[in-house]
Amino acid sequence: MIRSMTGFGTVEHAENGVSYVVEARGGNHRYLKVVIKLPERFQFADSAVEKAVRARLSRGSVSVAVRVNGGSDEELSPIDGFALQRYIDDLAKARLPEGVKATIDLAAIASLPGVIHSPDFNDDERQRLTKLLEDLAVRSVDAMTIMRCEEGQALHEALMDCVNGLRGHVDVVTERSPEVAKEYHARLESRVSALMQGGGFELEADALAREVAVFAERCDITEELTRLKSHLHQFVELCEREEPTGRTLDFLAQELLREANTIGSKSNDATIARHVVEMKTLIDRIKEQVQNVE
After folding, report:
1. Are the C-beta atoms of residues 289 and 159 closer than 8 Å to each other?
2. Which residue, 26, 236, 31, is CA-closest to 148?
3. How many CB atoms lie within 10 A of CB 21?
């Protein structure tokens, strides 16, 4: 079953007086884009966490943010007073417009690079924390995936409504197509008869048949209808698969539109043209919806 690319998942964990909150947010993207946001002192785990997240996904824009709170007094980050004072001195030298007064926010300055130094972890602690953050990130992505599946169900229903609507129009066009040449033959024969009345000449026996045959060949949409039906069948099959199929569905939607355009340009019939307009409207809806499919 198809999955949406949008979703949200969060996981909380606490140990040794430290709380970890990991949030995963998914959005639409043509390919897979992963952004990992870790506190500065946990940057050593960035690549491992990203690798673990990528292994769970195939398409979409995903942001995984980690918040860490708490810890012992020994783990508190020391402030570099020299760096802090340098920032304050540089800001104090800034030239402001006349009449403008500025205040210095120490909390904002403390967040600048180099002001706060986090204590380093030893190798064993780094390995343990990396494994912990990997597990929490994967759990948050799994929670996000549950929401993606729920939204995917709604997407599936919307897409099937469009597919069923398309099939209805295709059936009408398929039934109507053979009548186009017959009606053209009747119209042409009537016009020729009217022109020949009182003219004292006759049309060659096979001339009318040749003209109708040329028209029928030019307006034949049998191949386009066959491909359109095949694409719709494949589209439904892809929507039922477990693996991500969003990019293939996007390609198929373009092929559906291509066949519909060709049918409209070749048919030379007002009734078929009206159904082609409805078909193209449904295909546009499909194209819009598949942009959300993983």
Report:
1. yes
2. 26
3. 16
Residues 6+ apart with CB under 8 A from 34: 50, 53, 54, 57, 62, 63, 64
What does pTM read for this prediction? 0.68
Strand, helix or coil for residue 113: coil
Summarize pLDDT for 23-58 with one digit per residue, the tens.
Answer: 999 999 888 999 999 988 898 999 999 999 999 998
Domain boundaries, the chain: 78-117, 152-290
Helices (H) and strands (E) in the chain, counts: 8, 4
Q: What are phi and psi of 17, to 5 degrees?
A: 75, 10
Distances (CA, A) of 105 to 94, 117, 174, 288: 15, 19, 73, 46
DSSP at 119: P
Give every strand in the sheet of 60-70, ordered side by side: 7-15, 18-27, 60-70, 32-37
Closest CA to 64 of 145, 150, 120: 145
Q: How far apart (Å, rounded) are the C-alpha atoms in residues 215 and 192?
A: 16
Q: Which of 140, 139, 129 is nearest to 42 (CA)?
A: 129
Residue type for 246, please? G
Q: How many CB atoms lie within 10 A of CB 133?
A: 25
What is the three-class DSSP state of 203?
A: coil
Query: What would the two tokens of residue 74 be?
Result: 């020994």
> 98 falls in which pLDDT band (50, 70, 90)?
confident
Q: pLDDT by residue (tens digit) across 144-167?
A: 999 999 999 999 999 999 999 999
Mean pLDDT of the chain: 83
